[in-house]
Structures are given as C-alpha cells and as structure tokens.
Amino acid sequence: MTEDAPQAVPPSQAMWLAGAKRLGSSVLPFVVVILLWQFASLFFPRFLFPSLIDVFWRCLEIFADGSMFADVLATILRILAGLAGAFIVGGVLALLMVRSRAVDNFLSPILSLFQGIPALSWVVFAIIWFHGVEFRIFFIMVMTTLPAFTFQVLGALRAMSRDLMEMVFSFRPTRIKLFRVMIAPAILPDILTAWKVNLGNASRVVVVAELVGATGGVGYQLLQQQQLFDMAGALAWTLQLVFFVLIVQGALTLIENTVFRYRAVSERAI
Amino acid sequence: MSEAATAEKAAIHLEKVSKVFGKPGTAAAYRAVDGLDLDVRPGQMLALLGKTGCGKSTIFNMIAGLTEPTSGTVRVEGRDPFADFDSFRGKLAIVFQNDRLLPWRSAIQNVELGLEMLERPAAERRATAQLWLTKLGLGGHEHDYPHALSGGMRQRVSIARAFATNANILLCDEPFSALDESTAGRLRAEFVRLVKENGKTAVFITHSISEALEIGDRIVVLKRPAMIAYDVSFDADTGQAERELIRSRIGEVLAV
Question: Cβ separation of A172 and B100 shorter than 8 Å?
C-alpha cells in the first residue's frame, strides 16, 4: 500500500499565500464594518446612515479642496505639536523624577491629579485663562497627554536593566554617550508604545478642543456638519482623522519592525 | 619600602578598606569588607576565592570604581577608581558573571562599545572588534544579535569586548560560572592565554578551587566579612603535588 505524500507548495507560492492571508486578515474587519454600514443605509434615512459612496465623494472633496484640506492639516499639526510638547516636558519631568526621590514624591501626586481632570475641563480652563486659539489648543493637548507620557517614560527609565547600566558605566561613558548607547535604545520601545497610545487620545481630545474654541480644523468642521444635520459630511471629516491616526500608527509599527529586529521571537505565542 | 611607594608600585592597592552597607552603627548595617589590605602587582593574575556572601563582589565593585569604600584607600595604578572615575576610561575592563551584551547591538557592535567611549575612529573600531571576535573563534557571527548566539558565544563576545579596549587591568567576576564545564574549560584556557600574551593584570573572582588553581598565579582566600584567610602564590613550574597541597589547604580554610 502506498501513502499519498502531501503536495509540497513551492516557496514563492507559499510566500504569496502567506502575504495574501496577512493582508486578508487585516482588511477583513474593515470590509465587514463597511458592508454593515452600507446595508444599514438601504433601510435608514440618509441623515442617519448615508451611503458610503456619498461619504467617499465627500472625502475626495475634502482632499481636493485646498481650504478644506488646510483644516485637516491644521488639526494634524495641532495633534503633533501637542504630543511633541507633552513628550518633551514629560521626558524632562521623568528624568528629574528618576534622579530624585523628592522630585518624584512631589510631582507624582500632581500628575495623578491632572490625570483625573477630564479633557473638557481643560478646554474650559484654557478658554478662561488664555486668549490665543492656537495656544489654547496646544495647552489642552499638552495637559491631557502629559501625565501619560511622563509616567510611561518614567516606567521605562526605571525598568532599565541595572546590570547593563553597570556594564556601560564600567567603560566610563560621558553623559551624552550613556544616553546614546544605553538609555535611548533601552527606553525606545516604551516611547513608541506611549506615542501610539497617546496619538489615539490626542486625536479625540483635539476634536473636543476645536469644537469649542477654534475657527478651523476637523473639530470646527464637525460642528458645522452637526448644525447642517449632514451625516455624510460628519463621517467624511471624522475619517480624515481616522486616516491620519492609521497612517501614523502604521509608520510607528514600521519603525518598530525595523528598529527592534534584534528581538528574539518565540515560535510559541503568549 | 614606604606605603606610598608600595601603592605606586602595585597595580591595585587596597589599604584598611572597609565597606558597610546601611547606616553604620545601626542594627541594619552590614559590614561586607573589614579592614582589608591587598596589593596586586602588575602582570599578576590574582584569583579571589571565597564562599558566596564573603564580600568578593563588593571588593570587585570597589576596585572597578562602581562602589565607594566606607573607609580605607583603594588605588588602581595609583589613582582612586571611584573619585577619578572618568580617568580610568580605557584603563580598566570588566568581564561580568553574565555576558551583559546590549541586546540591540550585534556582536561586533557590542565589542566596539568600549572603543566608542575612547572616541576611536569608526574604521579602527571595526577592525579591532573584528580581530578580537576572530581570535575568540566568532568569525562569521559578527552581525548576529545576542539572542541568536549560544551562552558560550555570548560570553566570548563579552571577553572580546573587554580585551578590545586594550586596558591594562582586567576584572572578571565569575565569568564562566553560568556555562557548562566543557565550554567553561575551553574559554578559561583561552582567557589565560590571552591575559598572558597581552601582559594584563587580572583579578578573577571565583568560588571554585579548581578554577582558581587553573587561572591564577596567586590565590587569595577570603572569609566573611572579607578578610584574607589564606594567600598563596605559585607559577607554571609548580608541580602537581604542590598544587594538590594548595588545594587541600584552601579546602581546610574554607571549611572552617
């Protein structure tokens, strides 16, 4: 009796299949959501569930129209500026806290307190305290993401291997070299994760800030759509932010895959 | 000879060195080293032997300049390794108990680490690192990351990293204790050859009598709190019978 040997798949075909499987699994959830929405649009009024074809054309309109796309860019710049500001201030605070227990004891409760303040409260405070629209939004973005950045960088600094630190110290590095060869690479994974997490938070907060206090940007445009009862417009403007978050998340993942290729990968998943 | 002259002549000089962890005079204070006097002459390979917790690592850290003595004097090539920390850049290299390779650097980048601190040009760094990796049998693994290397290979990279800076003084903290006996034996032999060839002064911490006899040309046995219980020097001409006597004497000292 002879047994049928399993048919060997050529390597190139196997790679193509694996790639298609990966692509399929990442696209499938979006396809399901799109189909459900489109299905709902057949049974509900347009102002509740507009056809995604309408939404698509509205998205293209935003991309094509210079003044509308400027609103998208303004929001993106506000998010990035706010995150960069919070990251720099948070990084400095974390360094001070890791160096001094007194500073840590002083700042930790304040940052925890800030974490408990809702984003909308910061919006109100900013409107009362400051005049400039851009500064108000920058302030709101920094205050809402600062505690998370600080605690995440602090955690990363504290989690650095003492053994590796001692090893590097044994070569008597200058402060700059110590930062470059040890501290920066050791905390980079946590910093990228912090950016990913805070990016999502920031994109939600910026809309609230613009909704109340700005004369331009995605939040302002969403307010206009609400007043016009235009769901297709509201969706199209929302999607601009979603696209931005997805693109930046993708870029950060790409950086992770390139920079952290040194990591060992277990064949058994968690 | 005056004490100052002795300190100057010795590569490593410890005089009445004590180290107390915790607040001295309180119940929580722990005296790890108590009034230790020790000189290591240039080119000597000293094996510091003792049971776990006898203060070997504390002495090691004080010589490395990573820990400050509570009292007494530590001098390495005439200078205080803790106070003059930066002046020892490139003068002192350490092989640790575990390899302590930076996981984000390849083998050759890890070996280059000390040379980067010395601001050597990139081409020179690369050539020196390549040379040491080849000497230690790691040719072909230069661009492997630590996770892709075996324990023995990683420890060889860490030895190459220590030798690459061409430091006069090598401090080794049980560098082969985590390896299997066959790999450890091979690396030990390579290590002794490299130290002798390059004329280094080495302090080698171990808790194995056999390893101390194989590595050192002098063995100092420590008892808690780190004080010298036995100090013996020997050389390549020392016969097997005499070595066995030393071994049994060390065994007796450690058993007390």
Answer: no
Q: Is A244 part of any domain?
A: yes
What are the residues whose beta carbons fall under 8 Å from the beta carbon of B199, sequence distance 6 or more? B43
Tell me the pLDDT tens digit for each residue of B26-85.
Answer: 777 788 888 889 999 898 999 998 888 788 888 889 999 989 999 999 999 999 999 999
For residue A243, give the amino acid letter.
Answer: F
Q: Does the ipTM surpass 0.95?
A: no
**Record: contact B64-A170, CB cut-off 8 A:** yes
| Domain assignment present for A35 | no
Q: Report the chain A residue with the minimal C-alpha distance to residue B87.
A: A172
Distance from B6 to chain A by nearest Cα, in Å? 26
Longest dimension (CA), chain A: 88
Are residues B63 and B46 in contact, defined by beta-carbon separation less than 8 angstroms? no
Q: How far apart are CA B51 and CA B17, in angstroms?
A: 19
- What is the rounded distance in angstroms from the CA atom of residue A209 to the CA atom of residue A219? 7
- At B81, give phi and psi (nearest 5°): -70, -20
For residue A234, the one-letter residue type is A
CATH of the domain at A169: 1.10.3720.10
Whole-model pTM: value is 0.79
Q: What angle do CA B238, B92, B254 make, to 5 degrees?
A: 45
User: What is the per-residue pLDDT across B148-194, written as a single tens digit (0 to 9) for each?
Assistant: 999 889 999 999 999 899 898 999 988 888 777 887 888 888 888 88
A163: nearest CB among B90, B100, B145: B100
User: Does residue A214 belong to any structural domain of this protein?
Assistant: yes
Number of domains, chain A: 1
Mutate to test the interface with B, among A160, A167, A175 (most CBs of B within 10 A): A167
Give me the half-sphere count of Cα atoms (radius 13 Å) on the Cβ side of residue A126: 27
Class of CATH domain B43-69+78-255: alpha beta
Residue range of the domain that includes A204: 52-259
Interface test with A, best of B104, B147, B166 (most A CBs within 10 A): B104
B49: enclosing H helix or E strand: strand B45-50
Among the partner-chain residues B103, B105, B114, the one whose CB lies closest to the CB of A171 is: B114
**pLDDT tens for each residue of A64-90:** 988 889 999 999 999 999 999 999 999
- Residues from A contacting B (CB-CB < 8 Å) are 163-164, 166-174, 177, 181-182, 185-186, 260-264
List all residues 6 or more positions away from B197 whose beta carbon is below 8 Å from its beta carbon.
none
Q: Is residue A241 assigned to a domain?
A: yes
Cα–Cα distance, A219 to A207 (Å, whole number): 4
Pairs across A and B, CB distance < 8 A:
55
Which residue among A172, A186, A263 sits closest to B85, beta carbon to beta carbon? A172
Any bridge partners for residue B50, and if so which? B222
- Nearest chain B alpha carbon to A187: B104
